[in-house]
C-alpha cells in the first residue's frame, strides 16, 4: 500500500515537472478568450492542465517547460484545414495576457483576416522574442514606439494589416533583425535616416504605404541586404548611386513613387537582377554601360520621362528577360539582336519616336 502511494507521488511529481506552469496556462486561456474562431475548432485542443502537450499551435521549451512558441496560421497545409476545405478566419484581438508568457521566442498569428485591435504595447517586454509574425489581419494602431528593446528580434512581419503612424525611431536598434516586412499598411513619415545601423538586415519590404522623404543613403551600408521593396509610397528625391555598389542586392523595387533625377549608371552593372523603377519622375537618358555583369530577370523603366535612344550596350548584357521601356519619350531605332528579338511591341509602346522591330519600320534616310 505504502509502495503504491510512493509510486503515485512520484508519478505526480514527474507529470507536474513536465507540465507547463499554471501561470502560462492561465495566460494562454486569457489570450484565447479574446479571439473567436468559428469554423475550424483550432482551440478545441486547449483543454486539460498541460498546455505543453497537444495544445494546437503551442510549443514549450524542453528544459523549462515554459511556453516558447505560439504558431497559429490561418493558411496552412495542416489536416485541420484540409478537412474543412477552407482557410482560416478569426476575429477578436491579441490580448495583453500574451505578455505574461515571458519565455516566448516566437509569436505567429498570421493570415486570419479578421483579427483587429492594436499590437499590445507590453510585447516589447518579452526579452527572448525572435519572431513576431502578424501578417494578414486587420491590426491597427502604431508599431510600439520602443520596439527597439527587442534586441533578439530577427523577424518582424506585420504586412497586410492597417498599421498607422511612423516607423518608430527605435526600430534601428534591432541589431539582430534580418527580415523586416511592413508591406501594405497605412504607415506614414520617413524611413529612419540611420537605418544603416541594422547590419543583419537582408530583406526590407516597405511597399504599399504612405512613406515620404528620400531614400536614406545609410541604407546602402547594410552589406547583407538582398531584397529592397519601397514601391507604392510617396518617396521623392534621387536614387543613391551607391545602391548599385551593394554586393548582394538582388531585388530593388522603387516603382510607384515620385523619384526624380537620372538613373545611376551603377545600377546597370550591379548585382541587381530584378530592377523596377517604373511609374516615377525619372529623367535623362537610359545609361550606357551594360555589359557581361548585367543580368536582369526584370528591367522595368516604364512610365517615366526618359529621353534619347535605347542604349545599344543592352545587347552586351548577360541576360535580359522582361524589359519594359514603354510610356517614356524615347526616340530612335530599336537595336537588333538579343534581347530585343524576343520582346513584344508592348515593351516599347507610347514613346515619342521609336521605330524598328517589333514596332513599325524606320523610315529610310
Automatic annotation (TrEMBL):
Keyword Repeat carried by entry: yes
Which interval of the chain is the signal sequence?
Answer: 1-19
Q: Which Pfam families match?
A: LRR_1, LRR_8, LRRNT_2
Which keywords are on file for this protein? Leucine-rich repeat, Repeat, Signal
Q: What are the residue boundaries of the Leucine-rich repeat-containing N-terminal plant-type domain, all occurrences included?
A: 22-61
User: Would you tell me the protein name for this molecule?
Assistant: DNA-damage-repair/toleration protein DRT100-like
Gene name as annotated: LOC104765971
Amino acid at each position: 500500500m505504502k509502495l503504491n502511494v510512493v509510486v503515485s507521488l512520484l508519478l505526480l511529481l514527474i507529470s507536474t515537472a513536465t507540465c507547463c506552469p499554471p501561470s502560462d496556462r492561465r495566460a494562454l486561456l486569457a489570450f484565447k478568450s479574446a479571439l473567436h474562431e468559428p469554423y475550424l475548432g483550432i482551440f478545441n485542443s486547449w483543454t486539460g492542465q498541460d498546455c505543453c502537450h497537444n495544445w494546437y499551435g503551442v510549443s514549450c521549451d524542453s528544459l523549462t517547460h515554459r511556453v516558447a512558441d505560439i504558431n497559429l496560421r490561418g493558411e496552412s497545409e495542416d489536416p485541420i484545414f484540409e478537412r474543412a476545405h477552407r482557410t482560416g478566419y478569426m476575429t477578436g484581438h491579441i490580448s495583453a495576457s500574451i505578455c505574461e508568457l515571458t519565455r516566448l521566442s516566437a509569436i505567429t498569428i498570421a493570415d486570419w483576416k479578421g483579427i483587429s485591435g492594436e499590437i499590445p504595447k507590453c510585447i516589447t517586454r518579452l526579452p527572448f522574442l525572435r519572431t513576431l509574425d502578424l501578417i494578414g489581419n486587420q491590426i491597427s494602431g502604431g508599431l510600439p514606439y520602443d520596439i527597439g528593446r527587442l534586441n533578439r528580434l530577427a523577424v518582424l512581419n506585420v504586412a497586410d494589416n492597417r498599421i498607422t503612424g511612423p516607423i518608430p525611431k527605435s526600430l534601428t536598434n534591432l541589431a539582430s533583425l534580418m527580415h523586416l516586412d511592413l508591406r501594405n499598411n497605412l504607415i506614414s513619415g520617413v524611413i529612419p535616416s540611420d537605418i544603416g545601423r541594422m547590419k543583419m538586415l537582408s530583406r526590407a519590404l516597405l511597399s504599399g504605404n504612405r512613406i515620404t522623404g528620400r531614400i536614406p543613403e545609410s541604407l546602402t551600408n547594410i552589406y547583407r541586404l538582398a531584397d529592397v521593396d519601397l514601391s507604392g509610397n510617396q518617396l521623392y528625391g534621387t536614387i543613391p548611386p551607391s545602391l548599385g555598389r551593394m554586393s548582394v542586392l538582388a531585388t530593388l523595387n522603387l516603382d510607384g513613387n515620385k523619384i526624380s533625377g537620372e538613373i545611376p549608371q551603377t545600377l546597370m552593372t550591379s548585382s541587381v537582377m530584378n530592377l523596377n523603377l517604373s511609374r516615377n519622375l525619372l529623367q535623362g537618358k537610359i545609361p550606357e554601360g551594360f555589359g557581361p555583369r548585367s543580368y536582369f530577370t526584370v528591367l522595368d523603366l516604364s512610365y517615366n520621362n526618359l529621353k534619347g535612344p535605347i542604349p545599344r550596350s543592352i545587347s552586351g548584357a548577360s541576360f535580359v528577360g522582361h524589359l519594359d521601356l514603354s510610356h517614356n519619350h524615347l526616340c530612335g531605332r530599336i537595336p537588333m539582336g538579343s534581347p530585343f528579338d524576343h520582346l513584344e511591341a508592348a515593351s516599347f509602346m507610347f514613346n515619342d519616336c521609336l521605330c524598328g522591330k517589333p514596332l513599325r519600320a524606320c523610315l529610310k534616310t
